[in-house]
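Appendix B. Raw example, untouched.
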Amino acid sequence: MKPPHAAHSPQTLTRPLTLPNGSVLRNRLAKSAMSEALGTYDNHATPRLVTLYRRWAASGIGLLVTGNVMVDRRALGEPGNVVIEDDTDLPLLRQWARAATDQGAAIWVQLNHPGKQSPKGLNRRNLSPSAVPFRPDLQAFFDTPHEATEAEILDIVQRFGRSAAVCKQAGFSGVQIHGAHGYLVSQFLSPHHNQRTDGWGGSPEKRRRFVLAVYAEIRRQVGPDFPVGIKLNSADFQRGGMDEAESADTMRALAEAGIDLIEVSGGTYEAPAMTGVKADKSGASATPKASTVAREAYFLTFAEQLRQTVKVPLMVTGGFRTAAGMNAALDSGALDVVGIARLMAIDPDAPAALLRGQNSPQEVARIRTGIPLVDRAAMMEVMWYTRQLQRIAAGRPTRPRESGLWAFLAAVVHSGWGSFRTRRLRA
């Protein structure tokens, strides 16, 4: 028997969804967050973000989740991140929000802190729950972090709340906490990254204390009627990382606390399962199971199990390719919102077709450079697609067949220059 909220329409994707706080998404299709890197080098929003989100909203999509917006200017994930610490950029933030809401789409700001997951040399120093380095083959790209102090932890919690309050003031429809993919919230949840023995680590309950504190502070500052969601890993797919059982317990705790939407994803930079690439114990990439490919969604089985105990709306992102696959997943009752991301970078009009029951003429494919280390870490699943977003934001057509190697070389030059300019501006 399907749960009460499961839909039965042949085109379930087009049905509206009412969230627990009463706000409504016009349909079940959402753009999951992708890093745009369209901020200035001193981390302010730009008109290019307005152009990009206006284009996406025109596609008819129900929900747009922005790329990771940082809550601390001292802690960037990459050059060009937007940082929201105060209301300095309020006029442009309002334009960004209206680019979507004026066309009927909801737009949520994804709030993030990178923790240790920041390119070497970008920040003066990086912090994490514990001073655990990256695996050896990635240490050329990422510094070993210092262990966060109690005061630093509490400061970051407050910053999440303040950033969310500014987003509400600017007219965004909601916010999403980025608790996945190896960033700071994810690091606190992981037994591998969080080896503390104080009140912030040492047991599953203490490891999830940080994310619950972040949610509580956001809710305190935005009130009960403003949507607050979270993106969480089903698992880290990394030796010693968070497993599915602990992840499910965290999601249940957040549901009990009042979260409005949980987006299910998985993996980290060291094991990028969110791109369809899972790592074996040596760190080498492995091909997804045929059954996973056939069902399209990478994390659907986890969502089905979670649905038995969590009634908060669930969004699943990763692997969806066809309108039929999306509608079948929704009809199963395991999820309430379908998330797509990379497809929107090569076909910004894809939602219009999907909502008609048709497939996009474009297809997401693995981007390869021929450089084993780069390809194993799936670095181009961020870099290559970020370049496509920048083309849309400039009013230019995308390049679905752009060379992975060329994009990598261009991204390295851009990142190096961006890191240099960012450090100079903060000197």
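End of appendix B.
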